[in-house]
Specification:
Shape: globular
Number of helices: 7
Largest sheet: 7 strands, mixed
Structural class: alpha/beta
Number of strands: 7
């Protein structure tokens, strides 16, 4: 199996378009990654993307990103409620669905079947241990927690492997961060 390096990551899939999904989608796009955001309905996704636009403007007004970067970021984020479309050729997955290990496991299991084998899967959980649902992910060696803090206030992200996470995955996630 191929081990991705941070420089190989071109396309990021965000699972969930709530507050943290919106923030991670925006920060990834602001750093030049192509982003696809998936959720269970287009209505939810459109509300989320509307908030991304507002947050992007706020970051520009705070002087954290130039206007040109913000404009480009908004063009490289796509939204879809179709899992097959969302999973197409993604390199890195950041999950931000409700804090329930069963739901997280189900979502990861579905995307494990759809994403290419070398894609790295991460969870943005703030309250659960990744080991609680690592087996359900389908690729435990390519899975860890990758928890973002509020991007408008800090540049902190936590990387937390579980016992089955490969050292290569941990290094790639740290380098990506």
């Amino acid at each position: 199996m191929i081990d991705l390096k941070a420089e190989d990551i071109k396309k990021v899939l965000i699972l969930g378009s709530g507050t943290m999904g919106q923030q991670t989608a925006l920060i990834c796009a602001l750093h030049g990654y192509n982003v696809v955001m998936y959720d269970i309905s287009m209505e939810i996704l459109e509300r989320g993307f509307s908030r991304i636009r507002k947050n992007c403007l706020r970051l520009v007004n705070l002087g954290q990103f130039p206007q040109a970067a913000a404009e480009k970021a908004l063009t490289i984020i796509s939204i879809t409620d179709k899992p097959e479309t969302a999973a197409d050729n993604v390199d890195f997955v950041i999950e931000s669905v409700p804090e329930d290990p069963v739901i997280k496991g189900q979502v990861f299991a579905m995307f494990h079947k759809l994403c290419k084998p070398e894609a790295i899967f991460t969870t943005n959980t703030s309250t659960l241990l990744p080991s609680m649902f690592a087996d359900a992910v389908g690729r435990p060696e390519k899975f860890c927690a990758f928890h973002f803090h509020d991007i408008s206030m800090t540049k902190i992200v936590d990387v937390m492997p579980h016992p089955g996470t490969s050292a290569e995955t941990v290094e790639t996630v740290k380098d990506f961060a």
